[in-house]
Amino acid sequence: MTGTVLLLTLAYVAVAALLLNLTLATRYSVRLKATVIFLVSMFYVVTWQGNWSLLGWPSRADMPDHFRVLWITIEDPDKKTSLPGSIYYWVRELDLESRPYGPPRAYALVWTESEAEEAQRALDLMDEGEIMNGHRTRALMAPLKDTPLMEDEGALGQRKAGDPQGLPSFEFRQAKRPSLPAKEAPR
């Protein structure tokens, strides 16, 4: 992973050096040259922010509507530092027959008391060996006053400060054990 990030950084440096060389050798106006250099530099920042999944960080995207829960980690809010808590889900999406498909993916959601309680119940059942499926409900998870506010969407944000919608709720159910075909008797 570090090699990929290093290679990507070197490629950006090479493009920037080429751009700088070409702009110095042309007779375009200084304003145009500065604008092009600024736009290319902003492209690097936007690309870096867009490639968080390349670095292995949990996704900020919406979770799938139906998923198999592989693991959950709950981090309670820190009252000392006023940091909002987080709930991390490691899930696989389910197909129409409720079978997991595709690679697992990590998601990060903002901590709320009701979501943390539901996640802890699912985690307790998983500790007992149960297989858990989750699905998004259409009800709101918590009233606005219980949901921690975030100033922007950057950190883990599924919700901006002042968002009246709240957060989606997830419901967890025990998955049916897969039925295996009968084994033939040894001869």
- N-to-C series of helices and strands: HHEEEHEE
Largest sheet: 5 strands, antiparallel
Oligomeric nature of the chains:
single chain
Please tally the helical runs, counting DSSP H or I stretches of 4 or more residues. 3
The total of beta strands comes to 5
**Cα gyration radius (Å):** 23 Å
Sheet-strand content, in percent, reads: 15-25%
Helix content: 25-40%
Separation of the first and last Cα atoms: 50 Å
Outline type: elongated
The helix-and-strand class reads alpha+beta
Low-confidence stretches: 140-166
Strand order of the largest sheet: 3-2-1-4-5
- How much is the average pLDDT? 77
> How many domain units?
2
Layout of strands and helices, then pairs:
Elements lengths: L1 H24 L4 H21 L15 E10 L10 E9 L5 E11 L2 H15 L4 E9 L27 E7 L13
Antiparallel strand pairs: 1-2, 1-4, 2-3, 4-5
Helix pairs in contact: 1-2
